[in-house]
Design brief:
By secondary structure, this protein is of the alpha+beta class. 43% of the residues lie in helices and 18% in strands. The chain has one domain: Roll (Endonuclease I-creI). The radius of gyration is 21 Å and the shape is globular.
Length: 200
């Protein structure tokens, strides 16, 4: 049996007498790994509810008889050190790491992303006990996913639309994103779509 932690693999030879000890070691290593991942999420990650409501998107939905924005949870971590993100994938088996194109001759940025509701639920359930900074965001995202009802593109009720909008606004507040009134924007920028500015 091999246990991976950090950059070291520990080989354990298990027999009946040592099985309980081995299980205890596995649990300890996993807890330490999840605490490390939670620290990365607290410091470098974003837990968000995305709202898609651009003019072109809403026009496309209107042609299908849908007149409400689309809301979806997501988790993203961006770092220049790919090894830390690879560790998240190896430990949890969730998400993928993407390399972004470097700009101005800077080092490339790597991003680990989760968008699947089932994977978001599994990941946040694992790290929630160890989160400090983004614990409230994680709890809100879990609640949002749990209460999600799919309408397969059909028109949702006003009550559900109001609930999703409220969750989106609450997540923005938790992430420190301030909604600006169009009247507060400089001339020439009043057509800007703030619906996608969700990263803390």
């Amino acid at each position: 049996m091999g246990l991976f932690f950090g950059h070291t693999t520990y080989d354990l030879h298990v027999n009946k007498k040592s099985r309980n000890w081995t299980i205890a070691i596995e649990e300890k290593v996993m807890k330490e790994s999840l605490a490390y991942i939670a620290g990365i999420l607290d410091g470098e990650g974003s837990i968000m509810i995305q709202k898609q409501a651009s003019k072109s998107f809403m026009e496309q939905r209107a042609r299908r008889g849908c007149f409400h924005p689309h809301y979806a949870p997501a988790i993203r971590i961006g770092m220049q050190e790919k090894a830390a993100l690879d560790f998240i994938v190896k430990t949890t088996g969730l998400g993928m790491v993407y390399e972004e194109k470097p700009y101005h001759h800077k080092r490339p940025m790597y991003r680990w992303v989760l968008r699947s509701k089932s994977e978001i639920t599994e990941f946040l359930t694992l790290v929630l006990p160890f989160l400090l900074v983004k614990k409230n965001q994680a709890e809100l995202a879990l609640k949002f996913v749990k209460e999600w009802v799919s309408f397969n593109g059909a028109r949702i009720t006003p009550e559900i639309q109001k609930h999703r909008e409220a969750a989106w606004m609450e997540m923005r507040e938790l992430n420190g994103v301030v909604q600006k009134s169009p009247n507060d924007l400089p001339t020439g920028k009043r057509g800007r779509d703030y619906s996608k500015e969700y990263v803390s």
